[in-house]
From TrEMBL, chain A:
Keywords linked to the UniProt accession: Ribonucleoprotein, Ribosomal protein
Keyword Ribosomal protein: yes
Protein name: Large ribosomal subunit protein uL3m
Alphabetical list of PANTHER family matching this protein: 50S RIBOSOMAL PROTEIN L3, LARGE RIBOSOMAL SUBUNIT PROTEIN UL3M
Protein family (similarity comment): Belongs to the universal ribosomal protein uL3 family.
GO CC annotations, alphabetized: mitochondrial large ribosomal subunit
InterPro entries registered for this protein in UniProt: Ribosomal_uL3, Ribosomal_uL3_bac/org-type, Transl_B-barrel_sf
Organism encoding this protein: Postia placenta MAD-698-R-SB12
UniProtKB/TrEMBL annotation, chain B:
Family listed: Belongs to the bacterial ribosomal protein bL19 family.
Keywords: Ribonucleoprotein, Ribosomal protein
Species classification: Eukaryota, Fungi, Dikarya, Basidiomycota, Agaricomycotina
UniProt-recorded name of the protein: Ribosomal protein L19
InterPro entries, per database record: Ribosomal_bL19, Ribosomal_bL19_sf, Translation_prot_SH3-like_sf
Amino acid sequence: MTVMWDDHGARFPVTVLQLENCQVTANIKTVRKDLSEYHAVQVAATDRPAKTATKQMLGHFKKAGVDPKRIVKEFPVTPDAHVPIGTTLSAVHFVPGQYVDVIANSLGKGFQGTMKKWNFKGLRASHGVSVSHRSAGAIGAHQDPGRVWPGKKMAGRLGGVRTTTQNLAVIRVDSALDLIFVRGCVPGIDDAHVMVRDAKKKMISVARVNHAKGDFDKLLPKGILGLPFPAGTKEMAKELPSVIEAPTHRRSPFLPIS
Amino acid sequence: MSTAAQPYPFSSAAKILPPPATPPPAPLMQGKGLMQYLTQTLPSPDKQKLLTTYFSRRHPLRILPGSVLTVMLGHAPTTFSGVLMSVRRRGLDTSFVLRNVINRTGVEMQFFVMSPHLKNIKIMQRAGGGGGKAGRRMRRAKLFYLRDSPEKMSAISAGVRG
């Protein structure tokens, strides 16, 4: 994570994400029992040595014609958006100014008490409270129901679970190093693997509603003319500028509201 | 297709920045040493120089806490002078705090070195390493005790004018 200053001189934090040799390994089409179709593009990332990969995965990567990878993930798409197998994706797939959801495993916090895990208020610091200032207190009623409800909030393991941070703005894209700078923080530890998708709330939902209304100018966020379709590849990156940055749409905090 | 008319067809508002002068070395593609490389390449050369000289940990020209600095800003107040109380070194996020007494009111301001508003830093009086001719040496990295001792603040400010 680092920091950047926008055109007005306001400081904002950014997280640097890097694409490590992301290649398309399969185009999936599944026909469900009710005859509707599920289409997806399977992407694999981060090379791994062949001796640490299982035979099953080695066979899968050999069929796709790519080197063995650590992570294999699927992204649901429309039927016209399949990408040729073996294409290497690039950071230019994301357009500065668009919004993304970033999904990763959150930081593990171990066994945590109810105050941290569930925002319980604990007990008083003084006035006779003995040895239970941070405890949960009572966990049920009396004879009725005479048991503890299932799902009672209690102390336990916190963190280390799949978490989504939504609607992060893409600030800068660098195709020489395949870097994506997103505004704000993302879940997880440094150098962890994350999944980056178009924002469901600020991109997909907005586009769907405006498309239904017929408002074709407001399908994409301000300033964005289009997105690479079906994907931003290395070949596309060669023809585009190397470093692209999004200007801020916010007002300057240094000038009075006129 | 990249044409002069529309080099980046996906956004009308996007800024196109110049590519780096030298192509990045291969280990950076696996993320090795990436954040250090960004700290060295993202800011302009003048700002980089500030980080490597004035705000480094070991450079002979580094500014020690207890120095008196004047900072020129792009927004009000356009200049601010004060005693350097602390330097928070975090690469691009490096910042420092100056303390001054203005109209009998203690005023502290935190300045971020990489901010585009920070135009210039002038050193009015250096706090030396050995004391004496080089200047008084502070025995602390963070001089927050100055908040409780106005007499020490006056001693430092007397040295500037004298």
